[in-house]
Amino acid sequence: ALATLSSAVQLYTAHHNTLGSANCLHSLGELNIRNGHFVDAENNLVEALKLHRQINDQRGEAVTLVSLGGLYRNMSRPEDAESSLKLALHLYQQLGDRLGEASALELMGAVDQQLDRPFDAVQNLLSALALHRVLNNRRGEVKTLNRLGNVYRQLYRYEEAETASQCALRIARDAARREH
User: Fold this and answer.
1) 109 vs 95: CA distance, rounded Å
2) 130 in Cβ contact with 112 (< 8 Å)
3) Mean pLDDT of 54-62
4) Are the CB atoms for 106 and 140 separated by under 8 Å?
5) Burial class of residue 83 (count of CB atoms within 10 Å of its CB; 0-12, 13-18, 19+)
6) Which residue in 89, 92, 119, 145 has a CA-CA distance of 20 to 30 Å to 99?
7) Residue 25 — pLDDT band, cuts 50, 70, 90?
8) Measured between alpha carbons, how far is 15 from 149 in angstroms, rounded to an integer?
């Protein structure tokens, strides 16, 4: 898959298809993240970001910034993650993309937790949760509730942690029943 995506980037570049190149570089970065090749992933995502900016593709820029934020979090570079995610959140808000906004806020909550700012994490996660609920995004709701439960435990707010975890479990079970 890495070789195929690399070839596709070269092909798009040769045909002056900047959006195609940017999207392939993004995909290549995501694949490198999954394979644990973080430096290669960062190079791919930074290059994709440059291309999205070159053609003023704000949605592509925001998606890539969220990917960079997650990568930087995994690389224990929370300040870089926070910077990327704040830019992504701003773009998503400008675009009116509430699902993108929720994903950026949820990841910002994780970064806040990594930076030992649990109260900020709670605020970002509650904001993300509200958006997931408005959008009826059950998967996002479960993920955010689980993360929120972890932050509440960190704050020794065990009743709220249990409530968040039970709510996440109930939603996940309901979704599983609907699939069968």
Assistant:
1) 21
2) no
3) 97
4) yes
5) middle
6) 119
7) very high
8) 49
Mean pLDDT computed over 135-153 = 96
- Residue 157, classed as helix, strand or coil, is coil
Total length of the chain: 180
DSSP-derived 3-state class of residue 179? helix
Residue 96, token pair as written in the block: 């009116």
Distance CA 10, CA 17 (A): 10
- The CB-side HSE value for 37 (13 A sphere, CA atoms) comes to 12
Instruction: Provide the 8-state DSSP code for 37.
Output: -
Tokens of 100: 């993108």
pTM of the model: 0.91
Query: What's the burial of 14, exposed, middle or buried (CB within 10 Å: 0-12/13-18/19+)?
Result: exposed
Nearest CA among 32, 13, 97, 12 for reference residue 60: 97
Tokens of 99: 């699902």
Q: Identity (one letter) of the amino acid at 109? A: G
Three-class SS state of 104: helix
CB atoms within 10 A of CB 46: 14
Distance CA 55, CA 16 (A): 12
φ, ψ for residue 59, nearest 5 deg: -65, -45
Residue 167: C-alpha distances to residues 98, 102, 155, 156, 172 (Å): 22, 18, 19, 18, 9
Tokens 């109260």 belong to residue? 119
